[in-house]
Amino acid sequence: MSDAKQLYEKYMITSMVPAFVPIVVEEAHGCTYVAADGKEFLDCFSGIAVTNAGNGHPKVIEAAKKQIDKLVHCCTYVYYNPRAAELCKVLADITPGRLQKSFLSNSGAEAIEGALRLAKQHTGRKEVVALTHSFHGRSYATLSITGNWARKKGGGPYMPGVSFAMGPDPYRCQFGTTNDEDCAQAYAENLRYTLKYHTYGDVAAFIAEPVQGEGGILVPPANYFKYVKQILDEQGILFICDEVQSGFGRTGKLFAIEHFGVEPDIMTMAKGIADGFPLSAFIAREPVSEAFKPGDHLSTFGGSPVSCAAAMANIAVLKDEKLVENSAKRGEQIMGRLRKFAASCKLVGDVRGKGLMIGIELVTDPKTKTPAAEQTAAVRKALREKHSVLVGAGGSWNNVIRLQPPLCLTEAEADRVCTAMEKVVAEVAKSI
Ligand SMILES: Cc1ncc(COP(=O)(O)O)c(C=O)c1O
Fold it and tell me: How many angstroms is it from 176 CA to the middle of ligand 1?
């Protein structure tokens, strides 16, 4: 067997981010990762919120294998690709509001690039407004609209015509209020201010994640998107909802924007769309979708028949096995328990999220809310080494533990995660 660690260092650009404390993953099933040495771990990060139906779900694998035997590739935009067409119908059926026609691509960043281009073509305008703390990918345009400075350092100068409004963060509300409604209004007004003073009045689209993932699982106040949409509609600006991380049941609804009762004009999807097979899409309502004429926008691998077959099986599994409902239930279970624990542990500043998109923000002092990045890394390491639990970390200061397990997590597994978290966080809290 090859030594993955050595090969990484010798042959792979960027190798491994040291803070990740990686294991060599040889196999994965459901919520279990099996390392090369045979040791098993409870997966609470799903390959960054991808394997929502569970790692290697048998029905998804079966659908992909069946498709491989028939057709692997034909290019969706030169020949009729029946699996791609069938998937686009399914996406129209399950996405909110009037979203109807999809374009299929390969990664989140590629879907967002296409969505931006469509918005510009439809409106005839050139500017984009995004949010601070946001993350939209690592291509030139998507880094340009990413508000998370840690993720974009060293890559500039970036695309012109991009402005940032303040990303809503109720825990660290920049407007000094703890009232959800006041917070919603203040952040929405900040968007109005940004449109007025930071743009030259030619804005095609506003793009936002309904729940910011890489930014530290930031859940906006309840009415934020309603106020935002009113402002956008007044000014003829399209709302691109980036559901790349929050989609496909992750937040306890099929799409996170459903929590906020707002209809996007364009929505982007990737990650959880096909349980690990590479695929992404953006979907738009009419007449926005009609702005691209045949041939305007193409992707060689986009809409791979194998990924599309896997995606349809994945979406059926989410429904048949009630995994979206389970995501909501397990999320309440975990957040309920960890909030009780947080009340007596000063290292935990905030426990937040929706469904199985959960952030636990660690701070060295609850009054100053000083980010506890070192302690976050220590918690993550101890969870892995002492309890065989794998979690993510994120946030603008790397001080948020991210729990984003496959949506098939059982009640007992959720309890195991909470027990491990409580023990490890209490231990690490002794050092502050
Ligand atoms: C909200 C969001 N948008 C876009 C992306 C980029 O997706 P990809 O890495 O597939 O290009 C990510 C990746 O983490 C994301 O979380």
Answer: 30
